[in-house]
Amino acid sequence: MTDELAIQTATELGFDASATREQALADLLAQIMGAYSVSDNEGPLADAIEQFLHKQSHLTVHRHGDTVVASTSFGLPQRVILAGHIDTVPVIDNFPPRWLNPGDPLIREDVAAAHPGERVLWGRGATDMKSSDAVMLYLAAALDGEHVAPAYDLTYVFYDHEEVAAEKNGLRKVVETHPDWITGNFAIIGEPTDCGIEGGCNGTIRFDVITHGVAAHSARAWMGVNAIHKAADILNRLAAYQPADVLVDGLVYREGVNATLISGGKGTNVIPDECRVHVNYRFAPDKTIADAKALMMGADCGAELGNGEHEATGGMFAGFGIEMADESPSARPGMDSPLAVSLAKLVKERTGRDPLAKLGWTDVARFAILGIPAVNLGAGSPLLAHKHDEQLPESELALLADILTQWLVAR
Amino acid sequence: MTDELAIQTATELGFDASATREQALADLLAQIMGAYSVSDNEGPLADAIEQFLHKQSHLTVHRHGDTVVASTSFGLPQRVILAGHIDTVPVIDNFPPRWLNPGDPLIREDVAAAHPGERVLWGRGATDMKSSDAVMLYLAAALDGEHVAPAYDLTYVFYDHEEVAAEKNGLRKVVETHPDWITGNFAIIGEPTDCGIEGGCNGTIRFDVITHGVAAHSARAWMGVNAIHKAADILNRLAAYQPADVLVDGLVYREGVNATLISGGKGTNVIPDECRVHVNYRFAPDKTIADAKALMMGADCGAELGNGEHEATGGMFAGFGIEMADESPSARPGMDSPLAVSLAKLVKERTGRDPLAKLGWTDVARFAILGIPAVNLGAGSPLLAHKHDEQLPESELALLADILTQWLVAR
């Protein structure tokens, strides 16, 4: 129970039939954390998950690449999707994982204070998001329609390449190639939320705001036009911007417009003929991408991904050149759907926490595009995601399993 | 006389004893232009110049690296230095040189219009500055104190590595290693000025103006502080700057403060924690480097080359971080010295041109540091320097030789 030695890399997932639920959850988590699965290396873990799910006779299992999808067919009127990515960000001396006993100096003070006397699983993926994966695997076995009968049909999605570029995202690929695998009335993504609900997500667009000048030797600057000086008003408009708080379906989303990169100039003695300010607008789910672009560059600017520079005809950067770099839609939280309302009520009872707006972009937006209301709900602290000292107090596994079981089974 | 064939590479410099002055000047120019001497390749041309000067029995010849210095010892009360660099910028299909006859389409329209019916020497170095070098070589032979007696002792400096980094500059090296070779009451540098006088030069300092912020994910921008937004006021101050015209010793110098480079940010989704604006201040010769720095960053800022970032305590960028990158002093035009006055009077008579301020930094500043008044006066158009179609109408050689001979000989 309190073995501090390194956990061996799992080649097979499973738990003893006589194990308690707590023991089964702990074993599953230790096994999948022991499987190295930094993005691009998900294969062995996907194999183990596929084998584990195949053993559950009530599930139909599909695989595309390193994404595994398993569905029940109980004939129930509604279907809930439980999704978790199985890749992690790169390790930072935090693989393989270890169980830490109470008092171990590797346990963070905030974790120890909130969970005194509790052992902690430490290592890459502990919060983002192998703890939620472990709970979902456990539920995939336990909610078998025989020993435990859920109120909804269920689809489990374990997917690859969430931590890297969107083009590699396994959930995106399955949605595009096998849309019939991903259907349902509600989806839960197990991103770490400390077992609270975080709903929807801001959208994001990125673009260059561009000024042009005329190059000249800096000893004869008046022969040229300084493009960097012309960028002063771009930065003035950015500096004057006040982040807006926007209420959508009862949740508050904070927007933001920020320069993230700036570049200009060709040499230390040359009047610069171009300056580019890379701007990121994070917009609330009350806006479409088109709405967001209209606010930044005017509705008829004409700048699209890959079509070069266009002059902003209106909006915050009216009069400057615009070149689009990236765009991802927002997702409404869907907190007005009956399933979301009942889940939020239960989470409030168990944790005292009200739903919060998700500010970063997450895969809930993919479900939103499909018309499936989705929320983030997972074990572990979002503040520890990607950190060197990622860790999970063991009781969070049972808490998440409790909440999901109670909500999926009770009517 | 009108041979358009490529001129053969010179291995020896000289002209026929029976040649006219015009023929001697043309031969010398064709010979030294035929010697390839892009910076780092000055050796063979320096050898030929050294041999040519050694043949003049009235000269004492020294050599340091590829810089050749030759001096008279007539025992006259004043000494004038004539200096020219022998290197060129890289060739652009303009080597070897060619004589062009009137009507040749390679002759620029502006040159043909100003010099109708005149042949033109075309190729790398024609104006910058082998034409002036040819005139100085001719004078080195002709002003021998016997057939022609100059009014001043003379020192000729033919130096290497002017077109590249200052650390390689041959004049700088000789001044540092053999300061006794470079003494005098007045100096003329043969940089192309169309046979006008350009005096003094602006000084230049370059430095980074720096803002600091706090990095954060751009989805939670309010957790950070945006260093690029903080740079707005740097650009505002630059954009508001009006170039000052400063009168020094009768010549007008235009100053300038310009951003030449800007950079900031670490990623498209990260609030930037630093922004750097690279600023170039070109200041008139009424100011020292210390004066210039006081105007930009306050007199007691403390920023020096290589000592990192210091906060500006005053001046244009008060309150921002400063890191020094480069500094070169200005040079007063010295137009109030009696030698400069008499030279300017003669140039005005011969060309109708008043002295102008030199705005870029040139080697006259090296003489200014030594306390030697110096001006630029040379054959050829400064606008053709470094161009592909560098070329010189032949009569400019005689014009420059005339002006210098008359001034150096007449009392």
Give an overview in words.
Chain A has 411 residues and is of the alpha+beta class. Chain A has helices spanning 21-34, 43-54, 109-114, 130-142, 170-177, 227-230, 232-240, 289-297, 338-351, 364-369, 395-409; strands spanning 60-64, 67-71, 79-85, 98-100, 120-122, 153-159, 186-189, 198-199, 203-212, 245-248, 251-254, 256-264, 274-283, 310-311, 321-328, 356-357, 374-376, 391-393. Chain A has two domains: 2-200 and 331-409, Zn peptidases (Aminopeptidase); 203-328, Alpha-Beta Plaits (2-Layer Sandwich), CATH 3.30.70. Chain A contains eleven helices and 18 strands. The two termini of chain A are 36 Å apart. Strand 12 (256-264) of chain A pairs antiparallel with strand 12 (256-264) of chain B.
Top keywords for this entry?
homodimer; 411 residues; alpha+beta; Aminopeptidase; Alpha-Beta Plaits; 11 helices; 18 strands; elongated; disordered N terminus
Unreliable spans of chain A: 1-8
Instruction: Name the CATH homologous superfamily of the largest domain in chain A.
Output: Zn peptidases
Task: Characterize the quaternary organization of these chains.
Answer: homodimer
Number of strands of chain A: 18
Protein name (chains A, B): Succinyl-diaminopimelate desuccinylase
Domain Peptidase M20 dimerisation (chains A, B): 203-296
Organism (chains A, B): Bifidobacterium hapali
GO molecular function, one term (chains A, B): acetylornithine deacetylase activity
